Amino acid sequence: MGQEYLDSIVFYGDSNTNRLRAEELLSGGYGTGQVWTPMSGTLTLNRWDIDKIVYPETWTEMDVTEAMAEKKPEYLLINLGTNGVSFMDEEYFKSEYTEMVEALMAASPETKIILSSLYPVAQSYPYQGDINNEKLSAASGWVYDIAQELGLRYIDLAAAVEDENGDLPETSHIGDGYHLTKAALEDVLEYIRTHGYQ
After folding, report:
1. The domain that contains 100 carries what CATH number?
2. Structure confidence by residue, pLDDT tens digits, 24-34
3. Considering its fold, how many domains does the chain have in total?
4. Distance CA 187, CA 89 (A)
């Protein structure tokens, strides 16, 4: 898929999603209209209906469902849940995630929604007790289950960055074991283009 496909996707998620704006990797650079994250630049799954996103077109804060109804994007790619694995079990995670997706579907029924696996962390990530690749892999499975249940597409973005052991390579994060480098994010965008919505 070409640049036009990439340009038609809105990315909704946490701090790694926000880095697409920070690294100016999408059309419009820092002013891109394609990134939906809260003012803080990060988001935890259980707060999806509490924390407002910054709507890029007007730089105002609004509920994500409001933004969805306003913009009606052709595609919405959701990468959310990494922070949640530190305290959410399967039932809690699936319940919040499903509620979020159903609300977004209702706000813009024509939008093609893509659910993404969660990115791995590096071995050097210091908070392995809270967030580790075993938990992230399990949560990605829950996201996949939800995609199947709701008839939505699922994309395995972890595959774009993980090494043969399922870890984030030490060269692919900005020094904290968690946030993706510009090069790793470019690999993610390339993966999105080569695994287009069909």
Report:
1. 3.40.50.1110
2. 999 999 999 99
3. 1
4. 30
